[in-house]
Amino acid sequence: MTGKRIEARHREPSQWWADAAGALAIGSLVVVVALWLHGAGLQAVLHGGSDAVTSVGRVTGLVAADLLLLQVLLMARLPWVERCFGQDRLVRWHRGAGLWSFWLILAHVGLITVGYAGSAHTGVIGQVWTLTVDYPGMLLAVAGTMLLLAVVGLSIRAARRRLRYESWHLLHLYAYLGIGLALPHQLWTGAEFTGSAAARTYWWAAYGICAGSLVVFRICLPLWRSWRHRLRVSQVVWEAPGVFSVYLSGRDLHRLTVRAGQFFHWRFLTSAGWTRAHPYSLSAMPRPDELRITVRAAGDDADRIARARPGTRVLIEGPYGRLTGTVRNRRGILLLAAGIGITPMRALLEALPYRPGEAALAYRANTFEDFALRAELDAIARRRGAAVHYLDGPPPRHLSWLPVSLAYLSDREMLHRIAPDVSRRDVYVCGPPPWMRAIRLALAEARVPADQIHSEDFGW
After folding, report:
1. Cβ neighbours around 238 below 10 Å, total
2. How would DSSP label each residue in 268-327?
3. 373 contacts 239 by C-beta, under 8 angstroms
4. 3-state secondary structure (DSSP) of residue 172
5. Residue 375, Cβ density class (10 Å: 0-12 exposed, 13-18 middle, ≥19 buried)
6. Which residue among 54, 73, 180, 434 has its CA within the 20 to 30 Å range from the CA of 453?
7. Any transmembrane segments, and where (predicted)?
8. Angle at the Cα of 102 (from 99 to 104), degrees rounded to 5?
């Protein structure tokens, strides 16, 4: 059994899967608005006055609720959805849906309060108290809304930068609690639930599908795979300053449908912190008896993993990611990596099929000592006839994927020096988000077609 045999088991979904998933997402929003229209929502708007304000408040709340459920599905780890779009793209959509739902929730709360106050001829402050205290489920809804607003606030990039991953991950889980707390008020007081059998059917189905997806794909499937493959730490090896590799052994790994370039969410069952999963790419071609990840020692959890003893049990979620050979379009390849983004690139350099001279790797780091896995990269390059370029030095002040020592060259010129035929190659990219933005601009200037650029953002 070889590593190639493992990779052959995984198939990419057809394009119609992606089209169908997008159509279902848009269709859910259309259904929500159609149900509102069926419930005389538009007539109330045309009638004007307080009824119009209340009706608009209801539709904003319904669309916000649907977007919240779509957020849950985007992060439910549905295998075919993840393989169609890739987890980094799903995360971006998840954040976008979250921002839209945030503003719609605020609009819903404000419009419903004003509309009800107008109908009851009371003040807004008094109506807030009445809604919160006298309406069934509203206290829970208020608590759930506050949790959701807090999670959205902490998901803003400026806030995320101030938090460790461990803290952000724990706080982010409260979004599920917020959605759960908001559900009862929709069931008990929502006009769509109490007055329409079709709406009740839709919403019960939507909540059931989301809850079932979370249970099956976020809990049951990872637990089953973890039990089946029984992964354990074999050894921990330091590769460079602040970078170490974890070797893992297990059983029936040839049945684990994983490709070079993919990643798992890992939970190391040490004394503390095991509840937090971390996304780490495989840094070597998957083998029937061994997997390997390479980790940057940043944060409490990374330090804890570095101290893991041989025999430590490991739980997994995955594999995830589309940074594999299945998206390849051309014979030649160019691999571009920065920092710990070298991990999937090293696996791809080893696993992808290519002839001597058809593959090149450019690896960016701040100092020469920071180049992790350098001996392995050089050995693969000699054995397979690939070119490896090490670009070390501090970053320039302007946006660039090159170190300051090469500032006399444009980003596009350096691409052509490394691979003169870059526009006819598949380009795989992985690194920190700012560096990724710079390399995408350089590839666009080099006229590399979008369908030949395959990337995975290294960031949360």
Report:
1. 12
2. E-SSS-TTS-EEEEBSS--BTTBEEEEEE--SHHHHHHHTPPTT-BEEEEEEE-S-SGGG
3. yes
4. helix
5. exposed
6. 73
7. 20-39, 59-76, 97-118, 138-159, 171-189, 201-224
8. 110
* pLDDT band, very low/low/confident/very high, at 5 (cuts 50, 70, 90): very low
Helix axes 124-134, 138-155, angle to 10 degrees: 110
Please provide residue 77's backbone torsions phi and psi, each rounded to the nearest 5 degrees. 65, 35
- Where does the pLDDT of residue 152 fall: very low under 50, low under 70, confident under 90, or very high at 90 and above? confident
pTM: 0.81
pLDDT digits (tens, 9 = 90+) for 345-390: 999 999 999 999 999 999 999 999 999 999 999 999 999 999 999 9
The two three-digit tokens of residue 110, written as one number = 């404000």
* Preceding peptide of 344 cis, ω within 30°: no
Tokens representing 8?
A: 């052959």
Percentage with pLDDT > 90 across the chain: 46
* Distance set, CA 251 to CA 73, 235, 256, 268, 314 (Å): 31, 16, 10, 17, 13
- Helix, strand, coil percentages for the chain (3-state, nearest 5): 60, 15, 25
Q: Which residues fall within 8 angstroms of residue 195, CB to CB, at 6 or more apart? A: 39
Token reading at 144:
């759930």
* Cβ(456)–Cβ(344) below 8 Å: yes
Rounded-to-integer distance, Cα 83 and Cα 458, Å: 18
Q: What is the pLDDT of residues 294-312, one digit of tens each?
A: 998 876 678 889 999 999 9
Residue 103's H or E segment, with its range, is: helix 87-120
Q: Quote the mean pLDDT of the chain.
A: 85
The whole-number pLDDT of residue 166 equals 58
- Return the pLDDT at 199: 83
- Closest Cα partner for 106 from 75, 61, 137, 63? 61
Instruction: Check residues 239 and 298 and name the one with the higher pLDDT.
Output: 239
CA distance 295 to 283: 9
CB 304 within 8 A of CB 268: yes
Q: How many other CB atoms sit within 10 Å of the CB of residue 136?
A: 12
> Tens digits of per-residue pLDDT, 170-219?
667 767 777 777 776 766 666 666 667 888 888 889 989 999 999 999 99
Q: Are 239 and 301 in contact (CB under 8 A)?
A: no
What's the token pair of residue 292? Answer: 């390997």
Contact 425, 452 (CB under 8 A): yes
